[in-house]
Amino acid sequence: MQLRDTHASAGNYVVIDGKGQLEDTVYMHLQRRAEVGKGERVAAGQTIGRVGDTGNAAACHLHFEMWSSPGYYEGGKPIDPEPHLRRWDRSG
What we know:
Layout: E1 2-7, E2 11-16, E3 23-30, E4 63-68, E5 78-79, H1 82-91
Antiparallel strand pairs: 1-2, 2-3, 3-4, 4-5
């Protein structure tokens, strides 16, 4: 499940809710609203949006964050994504 929205600093963003996982992933400064909607399932490799410079962005880029349980909106905290990215890279 995801939530897509717009925020003054984050611009167009989407939260991928890691139901069954301990973390959520957030993608910010998308060119337009995310191409996926609330409740829609997503898969690895699926396009969810395009890189942009919306919100408080100085240049075109993708801002990626991972948030601990209970999640982005429920009081979680940002976490270092490197261990997760390394594990995902090995499994692909």
